[in-house]
Write a structure and sequence with these properties.
The protein is mainly alpha-helical and 305 residues long. Helix content is 70%, strand content 0%. The longest helix is centred in the first third of the chain and has 35 residues, at 26-60.
């Protein structure tokens, strides 16, 4: 069992014949690719916007000589994110038994906390991020190449770590299938393409609407990861209530159906959740969605005498 595994529900086999994927497996593949693809699109577009702002500033300031340090910082950040993902994913794959459940549960809670903080931070910081990046780059140019590299590294790495944490669960969906990773890569490719079009003014995107609805999606995904983490810790004996089932609809819930694969593959839904899982899921959604959707207060300029 690996950290942040998407669900304990069984997933349809992806290898019923040597060369033909069964029709029944199609919903599972589509679900995995859609969920991870949307994550790749959102996080990739956020990262692309950051890089676009930095590049546009350097080009406008006639400092193209510093572009290589930006790309080096971006490349280093991407490499770091890949290392973080594979360390978490493969580093815990050999752990078994209750220890694996405890590690998975704790890592799930950490991931939920970091993802929640990033989503809420982006809600208020999005309108000021361009100015902050330009100011930071202006200062970095006066310091030297290492400062430019560091600025781009942290600007991209911040988004990448969030993506890595979300994707650990998706990577283990369907018993180690590569479909979630393929969906992530496709989402990133689409995001990179959109970023290029945005840079040259070929298209325009309502970022407020885009980040609002994709933010809601990530919050719902995080709620499912939280519920999974609670269950894993209950199985590991860290927290009580593992035998207190809130409801059981297994007799009416087909895990191999299209809706079963959607609910399990994206939202970590299980047909027999514990009471604490339900409470945690509901409380998290209510509180975080309220914080995310409430109007952003505009700071009044300080009065000077």
């Amino acid at each position: 069992m690996s950290v942040l595994a998407a669900s304990t529900l069984s997933i349809i086999s992806l290898t019923p014949t040597p060369s033909i994927i069964s029709l029944a497996s199609t919903p599972s593949i589509t679900t995995q690719m859609f969920g991870s693809g949307l994550i790749g699109l959102r996080e990739g577009l956020e990262t692309g916007i950051v890089v676009m702002i930095l590049v546009a500033f350097l080009v406008k300031a006639d400092r193209r000589d510093a572009l290589r340090w930006v790309w080096l910082g971006v490349g280093t950040a991407v490499a770091m994110v890949a290392v973080v993902f594979f360390v978490i994913h493969y580093g815990t794959s050999t752990v078994t038994g209750l220890t694996a459940e405890i590690i998975a549960g704790l890592a799930s809670l950490v991931a939920v906390g970091i993802v929640t903080a990033m989503v809420l931070w982006m809600r208020t910081a999005a309108k000021d991020i361009a100015g902050e990046l330009r100011t930071g780059m202006e200062r970095a140019l006066t310091v030297g190449p290492i400062a430019v590299l560091t600025l781009s590294f942290f600007a991209v790495g911040r988004e990448g770590i969030e993506t890595a944490l979300l994707m650990v669960g998706y990577a283990e969906n369907a018993n180690g299938s590569l479909w979630p990773l393929l969906g992530l890569l496709l989402g990133i490719v689409v995001a990179a393409t959109l970023t290029v079009f945005l840079y040259f003014g070929a298209i325009r995107i309502n970022f407020a609407v885009f980040f609002k609805y994709t933010g809601i999606f990530l919050i719902v995904v995080a709620a499912g990861i939280l519920a999974y983490g609670i269950r894993a810790l209950q199985i590991g004996g860290v927290i009580p209530g593992g035998s207190s089932v809130a409801f059981d609809i297994t007799a009416h819930f087909d895990a191999s159906s299209w809706y079963g694969t959607v609910l399990a593959g994206i939202f970590n839904f299980r047909p027999e959740p514990t009471v604490l899982q339900v409470i945690g899921w509901v409380v998290y959604l209510v509180v975080v969605l309220y914080l995310f959707l409430r109007p952003v207060r505009v700071r009044e300029p300080a009065l000077t005498s």
